[in-house]
Amino acid sequence: MGIQPDILVLRTERHLDDALRLKVASFCNVSLECVVQSEDMASIYEVPVSMQRQGLDAAILRKIGIPVGETPAMKPWCSFLNNWRRATREINIGLVGKYDLQDAYKSIRESLNLAGIYDGVKTKIHFINSEGVTDENVAEKLEGLAGIIICPGFGQRGIEGKIVAAKYTRTHDIPTIGICLGMQMMVIEFARNVLGYEDANSSEMDNQTEHNVIDMMEEQKSVTQMGGTMRLGAYDCELTEGSRACEAYGGTTKISERHRHRYEFNNRYKEEYEKGGMKCVGINPGTNLVEIVEIPSLRWYIGTQFHPEYSSTVLHPHPLFMSFIKACI
Description:
Oligomer: single chain
Strand order of the largest sheet: 4-3-5-6-14-13-12-9-10
Radius of gyration: 24 Å
Distance between the termini: 55 Å
Strand content: 15-25%
């Protein structure tokens, strides 16, 4: 096709010797230093260090005409890897969701793994399909788990199981974080079983419910294009001083987090929730929308309308996941 590679990265299950690399270099008309192997590693986070060890960074600089300076020590990254190797204790975390394809929760799983490493534990993830969770079997389904994630998603399938799980973790004081739809299910469960609104629901699931504790914003209702009704991207949030969420963020009261959702906490019920014990501790300053709810009387029970997993990285795990894992430990 007329495409001439400058650098080849060879995916391989085992180490390739220089003779094989030299053969590839000769047949493909690239220099030996530009034949790099991406060998199977114990952790994907070891791959960048392996690439650097083979001089890939220096080869790229030379190819684009930038002087090659001193090799970076990558100390924070290597420190993370050392922590990963030292972490031997396991902690069991349950993900309650409806998508059997686990890549749907890949960002959440990785965020939990990263947060665990910084606390010296390896996070063992257990998936619980919410479609199979009932009042009769929830204790068995969640047995032995140190903490629970009520997962995000769209649509009605599996939501009743999420509500059952939220009730169980609330009444048994198990550390819980609800993300987006997961937070909304925590809100609905609280309305049904604490505030006494048995028909409480989201307008997304039941547009005839009398108590729509989760609803679409008024300015969104006139939008007919489905994608246009979504709240996407980063939005500011102000935290209540002294709240558990504020503590997780190191005491700061002003944060910005990324969203991907359509329905919101219905502020008509805010006062009732506050009186009932579920506090609205994160508020968008521009729209007054509720971004975070928590129950302070429990060890760790927080729901976020935003997606903390979107901004969690290797060197900077999200503070909410860090705080959650500490509570689980």
